[in-house]
Amino acid sequence: MHPGHDWLYVLEGRILLTLGERQMIVEAGEAAEFSTMTPHAIDAIDGVAELLMVFDGDGQRAHSHTD
To answer: How far, in Å, CA of 10 to CA of 16, rounded?
Structure first.
């Protein structure tokens, strides 16, 4: 969990999107958006999935790493 909001669009494949205790399958051509204050996970189903993801400012900071 972290402050922010995420948007995703599945370009190819299928994913299992877990938001808290809720799970949903998102397929190619479908989109989802959610508050990142909800525990969340994204897993590819049956191989590789390609996603386009957009993060707001808070989400960008949480997903950016500097080494």
So the answer is: 11
